[in-house]
Amino acid sequence: MVGVDVDEEKVAALNRGKPPFFEPHLEEMLVLARPNLSFTTRYEEAIPQAQVVFIAVGTPSSPDGGPDLTQVKQAAEGIGRSLGEEFTVVVNKSTVPVGSGNYVEALVRRAFQEVHGGEPDGRLAVASNPEFLREGQAFHDSFYPDRVVVGAEDRRAIEVLRELYEPILEQSFTPPPFLPRPERMGAVPFLTTDLASAELIKYGANAFLALKISFINELARLADRVGADIREVARGIGLDHRIGPRFLQAGLGWGESCFPKDTAALLAMGREYGLSLPILEAAREVNFGQRDLIADKLLAELKTLKGKTIALLGLAFKPHTDDLRESPALALADLLLKRGAFVRAHDPVALPRVRREVALPLEYAETPEEALRRADAVVLSTDWPEYRTWPWERLRGLLRVPLVVDGRNFLDGKALAAMGYRYVGVGIPALGILSKAEV
Ligand code: UGA
Question: Long-range contacts made by residues 368-371, C-beta under 8 angstroms, separation at least 24?
């Protein structure tokens, strides 16, 4: 297997076994795969002998909300120029709008023609094979997926991909030492369909998950007013098999490029066809409003944010990654700064990346003590497990105001209140009280 990337530094680092981002087990996996895996910047070293070529480049949002397909175009043209003699399946793994399969096929053909003159007749088929893995759990989701979806018009493409995925479909591979097979893991469904449906399945899945989270966040706003506990409500709703318990965790909402980007892309797709998608519009509005909601909760507790120091725990868009794209934590930091607060940020993994990539005037803390010393409030913005085990009892004395606003309903509020903290979550009853002297 050969990985191609246009970034020379990235390729050199990968060839030394160094991944360009943080993902649990990725370094170990690069070592395990090493005998069969190399990286290059040159298409001609990878494409001619390949039977299957995955396009897995970025498709960031363009200003109109639709995805920017520049990298897909470059990859397809690079593949077309180097296409070999044997039958090759070009697979769209990148999240691309419906119709991109046809676009990629046309680009590969045109690039082939430019170099070779004729058509790559019978030698080329294009398939869509959407990706459903979550960052931070990428290997788990790749080895033990809920389903594998392949869309193609050419039966041969589907057969080649079925064969490629067979060890996963049948669960016949030997699991890597760090990732034992889940006990109840059975055969994996292989869903074959047409190109357009496969492309829409990807967007549909992400949009539905995003809706689910926004729905629980909307209900959490009501829970706050009526004095209900959204965690209990989510449990009660989620036990219904038709609904399911996952992706019902209320809080700061979703980030990273996928949910924001894919919901925006669906809306752009709808606009192209003169169709409005009001449920998706509303899900985005609720999601982005969650950041204001947390800032307002802080304001209600502290009376003013001007000049206050807020310890912000977690900057990555979710735990087990250093991905900062559209991170709700950074959006919240920006809001707090605009309202006149000082923001002291902590993250167990993402700080080096934040220092390099984020322009906000944040203060940084490497330890719990540095984070909390003389702060006027703690806001938990990313549910990294280590925050649960911080020595909260001992840390309390460092704070100017022992106030915890839990943007992920993640910490043990009862225990914190027993230690003398005021604990405020999202859609859950607040616990503990601050004395007049403390605020
Ligand atoms: C998501 C999908 O879950 C994957 O299936 C998909 O392949 C991927 O996007 C993609 O298109 O690349 P990912 O963005 O890595 O995966 O992370 P999730 O675990 O889905 O979390 C997304 C966001 O929702 C995070 O900010 C998380 O904190 C938030 N979230 C998640 C909640 O606010 N509440 C929940 O109950 C669950």
Answer: 368/395, 369/395, 369/398, 370/344, 370/346, 371/311, 371/313, 371/344, 371/346
Q: From the CB of 254, is ligand 1 less than 6 Å away?
A: yes
Please give the angle made by the CA atoms of 271, 274 and 279, to the nearest 5 degrees. 65
> DSSP readout, 221-254?
HHHHHHT--HHHHHHHHHTSTTT-STT---SS--
Residues in the chain with pLDDT < 50?
Answer: none
The pLDDT value given to residue 46: 96
**The one catalytic residue among 164, 209, 258, 424:** 258
Q: Rounded CA gap, 173 and 183, in Å?
A: 15
At residue 420, the 3 state secondary structure works out as coil
Ligand 1 centroid to 280 CA: how many Å?
16
Residue in the block written with tokens 């706003």: 221
Q: What predicted TM-score, i.e. pTM, was given to this entire model?
A: 0.94
* Probe residue for ligand 1, chosen from 261, 318, 322, 383 as the CB with the greatest number of ligand atoms within 8 Å: 318
Q: How far, in Å, is the centroid of ligand 1 from the Cα of 237?
A: 20
For ligand 1, atom 19, the nearest C-alpha belongs to 134
Residue 63 is predicted with a pLDDT of 87
pLDDT value of residue 119: 87
Note the pLDDT tens digit of each residue in 49-91: 999 999 999 998 888 888 899 999 999 999 999 999 899 999 9
Based on the residue annotation, tell me whether 258 is a catalytic residue of this protein. Answer: yes
